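Exercise 7. Predict the structure of RNA polymerase sigma factor from Nakamurella endophytica.
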Amino acid sequence: MTGAGEGRSGEAHRAVETVFRMELPRVIAGLARITGDVGLAEELAQEATVAALEQWPAEGVPANPGAWLTTAARRRAVDLFRRNAALRDKYRELARRRGADTELPDFDRAVDGRIEDDLLRLVFTACHPVLRPESRSALTLRLLCGLSTAEIARAYLVPEATVAARITRAKKALERAGVPFEVPEGPERATRLASVLEVLYLMFNEGYAATAGETWLRPDLTFEAVRLARITAGLLPDEPEVLGLLALLELQSSRTAARVDAGGAPVLLADQDRSRWDRLAIARGLAALDRAVRLGGASGVYALQAAIAACHARAPRAGDTDWTRVALLYQRLADVRPSPVVELNRAVAVSYAVGPEAALSLVDELARQPALRGYHLLDSVRGDLLSRLGRTDEAARAFRSAAALTRNARERDLLLGRAGDVPGGAGTSPPDR
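Solution. The predicted structure, encoded as tokens:
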């Protein structure tokens, strides 16, 4: 039998993990704005988390865990600046450049009085050209999404040590280059824009369907990604790809309330109650897509995906979806940015536009590609197609294989449930990812 102390400790650890994922970007962004050092800001946030793990089991979880972490990190920052001569000199240099009069930063004012685009500054900093593209992605998923090194490694199908090295090198490179913590202007902003949009896209996707963990959705990430996309569109109102991304995120986020049931289990696209879709978000998304198209961005990577999302948003019922157009849009997307994942999504659309047999041949070809080896959605889609063709034993095996590959507990339960329900035809809904 678990003792009260162990129960409280387990509760505290779970609370720290949840708060850390939700609050990490804000805590790091607030500290990075003052210290000018992203690596140092992350270290301070992690030290505060260690302190929480030490204190919360005995003292109980505070009423506002995020504020507790921010305050703890702020105090450690002040201590570091006071005790470390090198850091004090660094701050004096920062203060001289910014015209500050104080010797030490006013953390109470700077961290508690949050500036709304701090997270956007963090995104632009993590997307500096001094970093390699793969390092930008890894650093962003770590800082903005709070993913562990192991989770990032699983998402990219690379060794954990590789991801850890990328993150370490990225933080050191930013420090060596003296990259300012700011949203750049003019040409420099333009050079980072593609990476910034990709980062917001990754951030949203992790919130939309979490790579790992006990929950299917992470609304905190989807909310922040949409918010930052809106700010970016405000900064660059005539950039078609910015508007395309904003349209995509608005349209996808409109389904949030319908994507899980009362118990938190995933609800597939065809089974969702579309009356729960956010009509205002859909209207915003369609308006952004229309503007992107009028500005000549109809063939942009994000605008094409937004156009696909618009096909679903405009369909009153799942059966009204224009799957022929969806398949065509995926083909255009594959022409612009070839990807086996895009081809897999096209196969799903083909299965509804033409039939599951035609789609299965496409999926079997994709299964030969090394990039999709170990990709659980390949087996999930294959299970769906086999089920619809009446090949129930093979379908059940495919769903069980997909369940073994996913690291998300909710998705695993869904896939195992579909494996068990195949004879009854439950595996007929397109995935909503």
